[in-house]
């Protein structure tokens, strides 16, 4: 037909089938392989493309983190095999983590991420946000820069573990008392530290300063000092490092939360 029409026939190639990790057929009956589902879960298009090509053949070496330009330049048809390509979707979060980090490190793409996350924050906490500063671009961008390489999707920042970034937490005097009897002293020391540091907070310096701060207590171990600081800032006992929390929140917000601890201990 090509010759009859005077056309140059293309070079045809046969690509192996894309299968589930166990070798079974990918099917729409699985429900979770629709593009809409991946988009809803915060999966980036380049991450989905990367994992799809990574599990197949056509490349001299397989590595994570390739974008479309690299895939095109490295593709070699002679490397295509006849073996089925097994897709392990359990690895997708790791692919997404890598590509999300690349976006955060790109100024233009990071700006778009900030806008997207701001909208998600407003939807997740429509009435709970007390300080509108958390919606400012500089604040959200700082959070992204500090968490890049740790989070696998933007939606992760909307989970309860990270709610302290957007909403001021609550905690009780009983929780404080269970950690230390020196909460008033520790709160005062933190407020003094923040006042001295002003706007120059950095994770590295704060880690050193907090170790020195803990040594000024008489009966509270370093571990419990850190637990109290994390409780005050997040209402939680797990999460990023205390120093990173402080840098993320900004000096003014850290001071506000430790003033609350100070008032709580005064009333007891």
UniProtKB/TrEMBL annotation:
| Name of the featured protein | Putative glutamate--tRNA ligase, mitochondrial
Domain Glutamyl/glutaminyl-tRNA synthetase class Ib catalytic positions: 1-92
Q: Which residues form a coiled coil?
A: none
PANTHER family assigned to the protein according to its UniProt record, in alphabetical order = GLUTAMATE--TRNA LIGASE, GLUTAMATE--TRNA LIGASE, MITOCHONDRIAL-RELATED
Show the Gene3D superfamilies listed in the entry: 1.10.10.350, HUPs
Q: Which domain of life is it from?
A: Eukaryota
GO MF annotation terms: ATP binding; glutamate-tRNA ligase activity; tRNA binding
The UniProt record lists the Aminoacyl-tRNA synthetase class I anticodon-binding domain at 126-261
Species this protein is from: Oryzias melastigma (Marine medaka)
The answer to whether the entry has keyword Ribonucleoprotein is: no
Q: Name one GO cellular component term.
A: mitochondrion
Taxonomic classification: Eukaryota, Metazoa, Chordata, Craniata, Vertebrata
């Amino acid at each position: 037909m090509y010759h009859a029409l005077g056309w140059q026939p293309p070079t045809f190639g046969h690509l192996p089938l894309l299968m589930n990790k166990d070798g079974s057929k990918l099917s729409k009956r699985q429900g979770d392989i629709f593009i809409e589902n991946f988009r809803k879960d915060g999966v980036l298009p380049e991450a989905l493309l990367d994992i799809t090509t990574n599990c197949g053949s056509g490349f001299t070496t397989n590595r994570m983190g390739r974008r479309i330009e690299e895939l095109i330049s490295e593709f070699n048809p002679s490397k295509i095999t006849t073996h089925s390509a097994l897709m392990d979707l359990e690895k997708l979060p790791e692919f997404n983590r890598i590509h999300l980090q690349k976006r955060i490190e790109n100024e233009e793409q990071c700006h778009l991420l900030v806008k997207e996350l701001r909208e998600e924050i407003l939807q997740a906490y429509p009435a709970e946000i007390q300080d509108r500063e958390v919606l400012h671009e500089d604040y959200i961008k700082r959070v992204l820069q500090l968490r890049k390489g740790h989070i696998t999707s933007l939606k992760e920042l909307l989970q309860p573990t990270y709610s302290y970034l957007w909403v001021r937490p609550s905690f009780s005097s009983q929780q404080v008392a269970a950690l230390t009897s020196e909460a008033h002293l520790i709160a005062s020391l933190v407020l003094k530290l923040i006042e001295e540091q002003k706007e120059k907070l950095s994770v590295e310096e704060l880690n050193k300063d907090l170790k020195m701060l803990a040594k000024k207590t008489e009966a509270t171990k370093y571990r419990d000092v850190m637990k109290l600081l994390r409780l005050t800032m997040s209402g939680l006992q797990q999460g990023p490092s205390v120093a990173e929390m402080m840098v993320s929140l900004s000096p003014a917000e850290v001071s506000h939360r430790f003033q609350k601890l100070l008032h709580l201990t005064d009333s007891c």
